[in-house]
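In response to reviewer comment 3 from the previous cycle, which asked for concrete evidence that the modeling workflow produces usable outputs, we include below a single protein chain processed end to end. The sequence was submitted unchanged, and the resulting structure tokens are shown without manual editing.
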Amino acid sequence: MLGSIGGIVSWIKPINQIRPSMFRIGTPSGRGTGFQLFLSDALCGVATALHVIEHAHEWEDPIRMVHHSTGSSRLLRPPDRAIFTYPGKDLAFILFAPGDLDLKESEIELIEADKRMKQGVEFGWCGFPAVSPGDLCFFTGHVSSWLTERESYLIDGVAINGVSGGPAFTKDPKICGVVTAYIPNRATGESLPGVCLIEDVASYHKQLKDLKSVEEAQAESEPPDEPADDAA
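The workflow returned the following structure tokens.
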């Protein structure tokens, strides 16, 4: 019993450390989670899953960023933001001027770009599930496997709709990944408990250097793809 209580207590500190970095992300077609990775006087960088903002990025729709701790928000139209996407990975990085958002530098750093967590290591992750979108919820599980070709983790835990884009972190704490999907077990034809897919964060290291303004970031980022015309 004491060991169980100790395990719970050990997660309280990293949860409180990640809380000020958390954002709720809303678009005309959906919602998800994001977390702050970069902050300067001129620029804030928020990581998320690409599918959370992909439609808004392609169609140049507005994206609302709501800072969870303060409740303050910014509505980002295309001229107000730069978005980096990563080929073959369900990851995105949104950069914008923080304006009057009351933000502080994150207390949790990214894991080193060349480091991977081993099987059995416990991860925690946070996000805003659709069942209670205003509440920051915490989940936990262990590394089931590192997928070398995909450069991502399978975790024995759940990822509810709305939690996509949330940070996965260790008790140290270090941010090790981004929640992108839940893969249910349908081997018997029905949906049974499955695993959570968490993308590695190595891609973000390249974007965290020498960013000075939204205009500079826009010049360096890829333009959104032209949306495909609807079939007749």
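The chain has two domains: 2-107+205-220, 109-202. We consider this sufficient to address the reviewer's concern, and the full set will be provided in the supplementary archive.
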